[in-house]
Amino acid sequence: MDAPFTGSVFLGMSVDGFIARPDGDLAWLTGGDDAGGAPDDGEGGDFGFAEFVAGIDALVMGRGTYEVIAPLAEWPYQGKPVHVISTTLEPDPRTTLHRSFDEAVAALTTAGYRRVYVDGGRTVHDFLAAGLVGDLTLSRVPVLIGEGHTPFGPLPADVLLEHVRTRTFPGGMVQTTYRVRREG
């Protein structure tokens, strides 16, 4: 499936490939509770996230990701259109709500966005399965959590990736960016 926009993924995950514990807990990623502190890029920064967000036109996420972000004191996507896929959420004036994947894709296409940040496990998986992801930046936090949510799983076909770059950070995080290879 081709669309006029490119989906871009930027995820933090454990070394064993999970983006959240089974109950949605992110303390191992954010440094909360007894997690040993948040990952450190050595410069007091955000591992390139602000630069990434500056380069996108809009965001699309699922309900679970929205529910993590919605209560934050400062809305992290000021000035960017945020689209949320959910059948249960009530409208939020900061977002555009879509009741299905297809509805979201149609709206993103109609809006004319070029680069869309795709966030959240199920949402990333659905966009990958539909061939709508052009690049992935995966930041592996040096922890094994054993089980949890992953954006990866059964796909209709292999998704071939081309390595773009790998960066390492003083706290042990390894961040790799891949471009999705398009055959033919």
TrEMBL record:
Residues 10-174 form the Bacterial bifunctional deaminase-reductase C-terminal domain. The lineage of its organism: Bacteria, Bacillati, Actinomycetota, Actinomycetes, Geodermatophilales. Gene3D superfamilies: Dihydrofolate Reductase, subunit A. One of its GO terms (molecular function) is 5-amino-6-(5-phosphoribosylamino)uracil reductase activity. Pfam families: RibD_C. GO terms for biological process: riboflavin biosynthetic process. This is Dihydrofolate reductase.
